[in-house]
Every structure is written in structure tokens, then in C-alpha cells.
Write a structure and sequence with these properties.
single chain, 7 helices, mainly alpha
Length: 143
């Protein structure tokens, strides 16, 4: 088994081919992109990979919120709990999302930021977006 920062179907296929392992252990990549397992299977079968639209990612966040909230806990604490997940998920959305979401104090602001960045029907690869270079251009992913 191979373990460690698997974040895309193409990367998974490459790692399987290069190492000869029989399986992958995926943690943070699956939090960021729960569609990753289906994407990897499609990649290995030579099929087109389906990328989730922004609204699908937003729906996933609503499900995650519903599964993670604890009755009787203050809303601000719920937001703080979700921010832990946002550190992984936000890597696939971008620096501005991470900047904004890390500063929200309450659920209304949390959902406002999520809607702003995810309230669309464009496909999202959800691969980690690397920080910008000094000249402002995004760095290229090495894989």
C-alpha cells in the first residue's frame, strides 16, 4: 500500500504505475474531494473523469456540516470545527477562499463565503492550488 498526499486520479494512476503497489491509502485528499475514489476508478478504466461543480461541493459542505454539528454546542464552536476541514478542502478552492473562510466568526458568514466561492456550476478539479510565485503567477504542481 502507498500512503501520502494522493490528491488526483492522474497522480494515483502515476503512483500505481511507478511503484507497483496494489493499493492507495487516501485521507486528506478524500476530505478535500470525496469524488476522488470514483475519479481514480474512471482514470484506471480509461474513462472520462467527472469533476464536481461548485454547487456539488457546496452541497457536500452542507452534508459535512450536518454530520459534524453537535447539539447544544455554541455556533461559533461549530464554525471553528468546520474550519479544520476547510483547511483541507480549501486547498482545492484557492488562497482567497482559505483567507476568507479562516476569518469567519459565525455560521451566516461561513455560508456566505462558501456560497460566494462555490455557488456556480463550473467543474472543479479540487486539486491543491499552490501559492503564487513572487511575480503573482500560480506555481505549477510538480505532478
Amino acid at each position: 500500500l502507498l500512503n501520502g498526499n494522493v490528491f488526483s486520479a492522474a497522480q494515483a494512476k502515476q503512483l500505481l504505475a511507478e511503484t507497483g503497489v496494489r493499493g492507495l491509502m487516501i485521507g486528506r485528499g478524500a476530505i478535500r474531494n470525496p469524488w476522488l475514489f470514483d475519479q481514480i476508478r474512471a482514470q484506471l478504466r480509461g474513462e472520462k473523469i467527472k469533476l464536481p461543480a461548485g454547487r456539488e461541493v457546496l452541497a457536500y459542505l452542507h452534508e459535512l456540516w450536518d454530520n459534524e454539528i453537535t447539539p447544544g454546542v455554541k455556533e461559533s464552536a461549530q464554525v471553528q470545527r468546520m474550519k479544520k476541514f476547510m483547511n483541507f478542502i480549501g486547498e482545492g478552492i484557492g488562497e482567497k477562499f482559505l483567507h476568507d473562510i479562516r476569518r469567519v466568526p459565525a455560521p451566516a458568514e461561513f455560508w456566505r463565503v462558501c456560497e460566494h466561492f462555490l455557488g456556480h456550476d463550473e467543474p472543479m478539479p479540487l486539486e491543491p492550488v499552490l501559492p503564487s510565485n513572487k511575480d503573482g503567477r500560480p506555481q505549477k504542481n510538480p505532478l
